[in-house]
Amino acid sequence: MRGNASCDALRHALRADAERPGQHSHAERGNDQQRGSDQKHLLARLRMELEEHPQVRAIRGKGLMIGIELASPYRDLAQRAAQEHGLLINVTRGKVIRLLPPLTLERKEVEMIVRAITRLLD
Q1: Interior CA angle at 59 toward 71 and 83, to 5°?
Q2: What Cα–Cα distance (Å) separates residue 84 from each residue in 69, 78, 81?
Q3: Which one, of 104, 119, 118, 112, lies nearest residue 38 by Cα?
Q4: Are 114 and 46 in contact (CB under 8 A)?
Q5: What's the order of all strands across the beta sheet hosting 65-70?
Q6: For the whole model, what pTM was predicted?
Q7: CA 29, CA 72: separation in Å to the nearest integer?
Q8: Which of 4, 31, 50, 116 has the fewest C-beta atoms lying within 10 Å of its C-beta?
Q9: pLDDT tens digit string along 2-35?
């Protein structure tokens, strides 16, 4: 895509500035690391709270997705999660809770999710 000379000069200056080393602060990188650890914390907390639950067969995590396999189907689990706890979940095959936590997950939200899932299964 071509533009006039002043547009080309501006595009070149912006690209050079964006590609300059050190443009991303350590704080931003730290936030990215914190987000990743909060998602790992969610998986760890779910395992800690639900591993011995009689209705839970397995808790798995792959990338940003978490699956909680249940021993038997729960009726209207996704609807109850939304209405009672404000939690959006997906239930596949009738008995696998699928969680897709946001990239901006915080520790207090991890605890809310764990508490909500535990209450739904009790």
Answers
A1: 75
A2: 21, 10, 6
A3: 104
A4: yes
A5: 56-62, 65-70, 96-99, 90-92
A6: 0.68
A7: 42
A8: 4
A9: 556 666 776 666 666 666 565 544 444 444 444 4
